[in-house]
Design goal:
This protein has 18 helices and 2 strands. It is mostly helical. Strands 1-2 form a two-stranded parallel sheet.
Length: 414
């Protein structure tokens, strides 16, 4: 399989998979965005952008953001589209806006991140009116949905999702392509998730089930000579990820993996099936991490074996598969931590083995007995940690006389 197809599969299978609200927080988006800013030709959202020749605006935007000129980069996009909108491809413009949003999110500027994503969505909605098949609104509305609660814009973002869904359904009727079909299922999954949040469980489940059955039939009927189009089944995973009913999600996962595993066995040389299996496995491993860390460890073992076999058969895919490898490693480490934490529950607290204490005397376990102890692990370089200090101070002032003891743990920094 050539490198271009491998990248396209990575794009469809993993692009945006961990940006959805409720699965991975903004910090992961920032980390993934850092990779995009280093090399915009490997954007995990844009199939078809495979070389610098495909991009005109994005490289300029990236350079400005890396130089700390994020606002100027946004102004450049606006000016460029006003002066000569036909000069830039849809993929180029979408990627440019997204890099600016990432730039703002890296400095925890939620309002400007929202403003940038809203501008991107306006651009995309105009593209949908023109029946542009390269428009990708799902990642945009998903990111807006993740910011909505923080900015108290839930009603506004629900309206955006409805409009994006309606426009994409019209597009899908006129463009019979895998990418447009996947985009439609993405939007439907996001819309169903909002219905779930509004308490409309049965309506949401009806959407999930209809999409699952429709996509399963398409996948099972797919001709062997078009195996590269098997990424269509990615949409089933999108529906599964959006489902908030745990029993329904479990059923979808088992059905999905059984279908894909069968295809893997029939076509061991086709990387797309193994990639699809891994995408769902990663989601499953993350979803049971806190409640069943041992299951996460087992899934990580399975994923690492599949990945190792995949790399042996397709050594040219080592670089694009690196994010998958890192995600498996991270899940394993987090699961190990969860198992350690579970082992501490209902057990006597161990002594705090600190090198030295600041602003107080050493606190052995005996001295803390009978108190409610809050352990705050922080670092000087961690801006979110620092941001919680006022709230921690308020807790101390309010509850210290009732037995609350707050201990901050950190490392020595020069």
């Amino acid at each position: 399989m050539n490198r271009r197809l491998v990248w396209s599969l990575i794009v469809v299978l993993f692009g945006g998979c961990f940006l959805s609200a409720g699965l991975v927080a903004q910090e992961n988006q920032v980390q993934e965005g850092a990779d995009l800013l280093q090399d915009p030709t490997t954007d995990p959202e844009e199939a078809g952008v495979q070389s610098a020749e495909d991009l005109v605006l994005a490289p300029q935007v990236r350079t400005m953001i890396l130089n700390g000129e994020t606002r100027d980069a946004l102004a450049l996009i606006e000016t460029s589209l006003q002066e000569d909108p036909d000069k830039y491809s849809t993929l180029d413009v979408q990627q440019s806006f997204r890099m600016v949003a990432i730039g703002f999110s890296r400095i925890r500027n939620a309002r400007d991140t929202w403003r940038t994503l809203k501008m991107l969505l306006d651009y995309q909605m105009a593209g949908l009116e023109k029946k542009d098949p390269d428009v990708r609104t799902a990642a945009t509305v998903r990111s807006l949905l993740g910011l909505a609660a923080r900015l108290d814009k839930q009603d506004e973002v629900r309206d955006m999702i409805k409009k994006a869904l309606q426009a994409t359904e019209v597009m899908a009727k006129e463009h019979d392509s895998v990418q447009v079909a996947i985009e439609l299922s993405n939007i439907r999954g996001i819309y169903a998730a909002t219905l779930f949040q509004e308490g409309k469980k049965e309506e949401a489940l009806a959407i999930y089930r209809n999409e699952r059955e429709r996509l399963k039939k398409v996948f099972e009927a797919m001709p062997d000579e078009e195996l590269a189009r098997a990424v269509y089944v990615r949409s089933i995973s999108n529906v599964m990820r959006a489902t908030e009913d745990l029993a329904e999600r479990e059923t979808m996962y088992e059905e999905h993996q059984a279908i894909v595993k069968n295809k893997m066995n029939e076509n061991p040389d086709k990387v797309e099936f193994a990639m699809q299996y891994l995408a769902a496995l990663l989601f499953r491993a993350a979803s049971v991490l806190e409640t069943r860390p041992e299951a996460t460890m087992e899934l990580a073992d399975e994923g690492e074996k599949i990945l190792a076999d995949l790399l042996v058969a397709n050594p040219e895919s080592e670089r694009p598969l690196q994010p998958v490898k890192l995600q498996l490693i991270a899940l394993r480490k987090r699961a190990e931590g969860q198992i350690v934490i579970a082992g501490l529950l209902d057990k006597p607290a161990p002594d705090l083995d600190a090198e030295y204490w600041v602003n107080g005397e050493a606190q052995p376990a005996d001295a803390l007995k009978g108190k409610v102890v809050m352990l705050d692990f922080w670092a000087m370089w961690c801006r979110p940690c620092i941001a919680t200090f006022p709230q921690i101070k308020m807790l101390h002032e309010t509850y210290a006389n009732q037995g609350l003891q707050i201990v901050g743990a950190t490392g020595r920094y020069n």
